Amino acid sequence: MKLNDLTLGFLVLLAGIAIYASALQFSPIPGQSYGAETMPKTIAFLSLGLGLFMIGRSLAVGTRRPGMALAEWTRSPAALGGLATAIALILVYILFSDAIGFVPMAFGVMLVLMLTLRVKPVTAILVSLAAAVVVQQAFGRLLLVPLPRNAFLGFLW
Fold this sequence. Notes:
2 strands, 66% helix
């Protein structure tokens, strides 16, 4: 799917507004000058700026193209299956990450995605495990973002 700059600018602008609104619900960490809302608010402001830039540039140039056109890959059943798998895994992560914990869910999501993309199983397992641990350490330790924990692997971090 190809979107013109005006349509994409509006979508980025709406995403920035949604991210900022959701970041308002995060509570600050006591004793910290920044908290869990810092990164989402930064991303929201960058999205708002990018969206406004894209809209302004599109209006200034004034080219007329369709708002949306489907790309060639949308005619491939395998590509559509991969897209459906990715969306389903995002929904599974949203629904079950609090109960299962971040590391097992991130590992499972990345593993299934890599296997869907036909990565060799050994490579997919190793990369998924390493990426889940690195992302958990980066967000949990460096950025102090509280990620979902579980009782089984919670003692590790």
